[in-house]
Design goal:
Helices cover about 50% and strands about 15% of the residues. It is α+β, with helices and mostly antiparallel strands. Strand 17 and strand 18 form a beta hairpin. The two termini are about 60 Å apart.
């Protein structure tokens, strides 16, 4: 069999271009191979460049010549590996054998494989424009935009707009809230299209100004979500990282400049359609540029900016490789070599960046998976949800675990025992029924409490100061001038009628008028008694012993008070209860008599208690507005109803507290109930099956 290191290497494609690129961070020279057909670039080092200079000979000849003529000492296998890299990326001129291999590979992909469809569902690009000719003209026409004076002017105008908006902050936030309508959503969509178009134009113009060719511009679909893109792949030809940084940051600078000028325009415009449009441009520009594009954890502008600032290409791949080796060495004890030699400080920074990137992507991809599920009809949504989780989260984990399993024989014996012990401990922790705490939201209140109101509008004569009161104590003494006047009139009429009766009794001719006069006297007496009864209602007494609270300190004697405004609250301090609400899948774990700890909001010390009643049906009304999300509470309620009806299936739990919480006020808090023990694994499986059962109805 012929030795491949002694066979001449196949020739390179004639349409390839080789350009000198910037030196690496270690000072080594680098070059870029440009595939002009698919507009793709491959960065190579010194050894690969020397190989290309001698291409066409055998690997042994090439390695021998490089060793004699340079300081490099390669072997023939390294040259052969580089040849295989070029062949895999179809950079070699295909011979008969390569053509046969491509033909066999394409035969297996008739109709395209499921992996091809999956990859192109997750990400695909549609080129729309070849803008190079137009960009050249724009570059000459808009040269003034790139001057330092223009940049300084835009910065000052943007800062002025921000200052003016801060003086109108209430109006600005009100306009933002009011813009959440169908018309506003269309406005935001148009602003997004304008902002992103100018964003990509910024990349393209700076690249053109630096002498690069923008091959095409178009739309990229990331999980079916459209995003504009600009092909600036030729930026690797630039020798300075500052030039690549200028291209990477041009989009964000353009979008922030647009947002700053729109902010100034909003502050100076009168209310109307123009001001609304400027609001849409300002908010989308600030939020998307600062919250999305600046993030270095996805391959957006922030990632390329950070890579260019550090002069560290392929930051994600190289940091992830360092983190994977770190996990293998620290957890399994594998003595695998580091992918690249770095100082300990730089390696730790790369590993920390990789962990942050993984965490960010897990949260982001979970959100995308849920969004995909909600956007499509249920069957397709479930399928795409599973695809998202499998492709982006489970597959990378599975590949790493597969590597661990394949190298299990190299794990030191002591490390195996430790690893197995940790896995066994975690399994027992998840499987054994030890978890008993049930966390619910609730509000503590006095078992007896009375909010005191005036029976009708009245004058204040005296209000009992806050503090302890006994049953029968006067909490407030009020006066109603109209009723008091009616009482005086009735008493005066009664005296007059009584005098008339005395005169009629002395006069024999007045006997027949006595009955009518007595009837008038009885009417006046009833009116006086009714007025006195109304006056007695204005003396408000405590029906039980307790604490008299929540009195307005600004009230003075003689001041009018409405019958709709509470005077104060009387609370019985000896017995307190809490109303809690538990999820449907956990209510069966509760029993009357279970121990409870109530943590009042902002208080570290709990109040003990016990469960005294559990609702048998779903609650249709929350016990207190403090629990509703519309009033800042933790439980969501139906938006289209004035009632406090919870959106979830919640069951009411009544709890008897052993003592009052601090402050003696109705208090929002978290409740921990010692319910029936349950394993975390069983709880998770039950919850998963409950979700699957709920979502299985098509």
């Amino acid at each position: 069999m012929n030795d491949p290191t002694e066979q001449p290497l196949p020739p390179l494609r004639e349409d390839l271009r080789l350009s000198e690129a910037a030196t690496t961070a270690s000072g080594e020279p680098s070059w870029v191979i440009e595939d002009t057909v698919i507009n793709r670039y491959y960065q190579i080092g010194w050894l690969e460049f020397e190989c290309l200079l001698r291409w066409g000979q055998t690997p042994k000849q090439i390695s021998s010549q490089i060793a004699q003529e340079t300081a490099l000492q390669p072997d023939a296998e390294q040259v052969l590996e580089f040849s295989q890299f070029l062949e895999q990326n179809q950079l070699l001129r295909p011979n008969m054998q390569a053509t046969d291999r491509l033909s066999k590979r394409s035969e297996g992909n008739r109709g395209l494989s499921w992996k091809w469809w999956l990859h192109h569902y997750l990400f695909f690009r549609i080129p729309l424009l070849r803008p190079q000719r137009h960009l050249s003209r724009l570059n000459h026409a808009l040269g003034w935009l790139f001057s330092a004076k223009t940049g300084l002017a835009i910065l000052l105008l943007s800062l002025t707009g921000i200052v003016l908006v801060m003086h109108q902050w209430d109006t600005f936030t009100h306009d933002v809230v009011e813009s959440f309508s169908m018309e506003g959503l269309l406005g935001f969509a148009m602003a997004l299209i304008i902002g992103k178009s100018l964003h990509e134009m910024g990349h393209a113009l700076v690249a053109t100004r630096l002498g690069l060719r923008v091959a095409h511009m178009g739309v990229a679909f990331v999980v079916l979500w459209p995003m504009l893109y600009t092909d600036t792949g030729e930026s690797w030809r630039l020798g300075k990282s500052s030039q690549r940084l200028a291209i990477a940051s041009a989009g964000i600078i353009t979008e922030l400049s647009l947002a700053g000028l729109a902010t100034l325009g909003w502050a100076l415009c009168d209310p109307g359609p123009l001001r609304n449009g400027l609001l849409y441009l300002a908010t989308t520009g600030w939020i998307l540029s600062l919250a999305l594009n600046v993030s270095p954890f996805m391959r957006f502008d922030g990632y390329f900016i950070l890579s260019d600032i550090l002069d560290f290409p392929n930051l994600h791949e190289r940091s992830s490789a360092q983190a994977r080796i770190f996990l293998r060495r620290s957890i399994l004890g594998l003595d695998e070599p580091w992918p690249e030699p770095f100082s300990s400080g730089r390696r730790r920074a790369l590993i920390a960046f990789a962990f942050a990137t993984w965490l960010y992507r897990v949260v982001l991809f979970l959100g995308i998976a849920i969004a995909v599920y909600l956007l499509f009809f249920k069957l397709l949504g479930i399928f795409l949800f599973i695809v998202e989780l499998s492709w982006f989260i489970f597959m990378p984990i599975w590949r790493e675990l597969k590597h661990w399993w394949q190298n299990r024989s190299e794990v030191p014996q002591k490390r195996r025992y430790v690893f197995v012990s940790i896995l066994a401990g975690i399994t027992l922790l998840l499987a054994l029924p030890w978890h008993s705490q049930i966390h619910i939201h609730g509000v503590a209140r006095a078992e007896q409490q009375l909010q005191v109101f005036s029976p009708y509008p009245a004058h204040i004569q005296r209000i009992h100061p806050k503090g302890k009161v006994s049953a029968g104590d006067k909490l407030a003494v009020l006066n109603q001038p109209d009723i008091a006047s009616k009482l005086r009139q009735s008493e005066s009429s009664m005296r007059s009628i009584e005098n008339q009766l005395t005169g009629l009794q002395a006069d024999s001719s007045g006997l027949r008028l006595q009955a009518a006069t007595r009837q008038r006297l009885w009417v006046e007496y009833e009116q006086a008694r009714s007025a006195q009864s109304e006056i007695d209602r204005l003396v408000l007494k405590a029906p039980f012993d307790g604490e008299w609270l929540d009195i307005n300190p600004d009230w003075k004697a003689g001041q009018w008070i409405s019958n709709k405004e509470p005077i104060g609250v009387l609370i019985a301090t000896d017995r307190w209860q809490a109303d809690g609400y538990v999820q449907q899948d956990e209510v069966h774990r509760l029993s009357v008599g279970d121990a409870v700890r109530f943590y009042a909001k902002g208080q570290p010390t709990p109040v003990s208690g016990k469960v005294i009643a559990i609702g048998s049906t779903r609650s249709n009304q929350l016990a207190s507005p403090m629990l509703a999300s519309r009033f800042g509470g933790p439980l969501s309620t139906q938006q289209n109803s004035n009632d406090l009806t919870p959106t979830e299936s919640l069951f009411h739990v009544l709890i008897q507290l052993e003592q009052a919480p601090s402050g003696l006020h109705e208090t929002l808090g978290d409740i921990q109930v010692e319910g029936a023990k349950r394993s975390l694994l069983a709880e998770g499986v039950t919850h998963l099956f409950a979700v699957l059962l709920r979502e299985s109805g098509f």
